[in-house]
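Title: Comparing notes on inverse folding

I've been comparing how different people in this forum approach sequence design from structure. To keep things fair, I'm posting one structure and asking everyone to reply with a full sequence. Here's the target:
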């Protein structure tokens, strides 16, 4: 994970803002989601997570979507997104949300290609600038 954050000019903070990485089981799997690694041989080249954030309204949240820069523009991000949407559909979710920053223009391109649209702020992430939603069921 550290490599992924450093490649974007961030400091990896597993004790603070990235502490969810230390609690994958309760935050992702136990909420009805999961956490996936995209690997090439023994190296992690991408990640994506899904956690349930509103079980009553069947809403999940995509987190930690990332592909290393040298592997971008090769379809890996779209493949991960397609698979997580299908996983969410099979899990009975009807909406997916995410937050991101303006500088994540490649990720936003992937989100928009799937039909994610901007919504008002829905969480307490002070770093995020853009909030998006996707309706799984039309």
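Reply #1:
Here's my take.
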């Amino acid at each position: 994970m550290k490599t992924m954050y450093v490649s974007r000019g961030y400091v990896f903070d597993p004790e603070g803002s990235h502490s969810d990485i230390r609690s994958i089981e309760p935050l992702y799997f136990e909420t009805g989601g999961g956490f996936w690694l995209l690997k090439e041989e023994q190296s992690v080249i991408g990640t994506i997570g899904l956690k349930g954030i509103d079980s009553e309204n069947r809403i999940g949240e995509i987190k930690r979507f990332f592909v290393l820069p040298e592997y971008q523009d090769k379809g890996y991000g779209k493949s991960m997104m397609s698979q997580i949407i299908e996983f969410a559909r099979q899990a009975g979710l009807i909406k997916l949300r995410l937050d991101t920053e303006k500088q994540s223009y490649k990720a936003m391109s992937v989100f928009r290609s799937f039909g994610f649209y901007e919504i008002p702020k829905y969480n307490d992430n002070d770093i995020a600038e853009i909030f998006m939603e996707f309706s799984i069921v039309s």
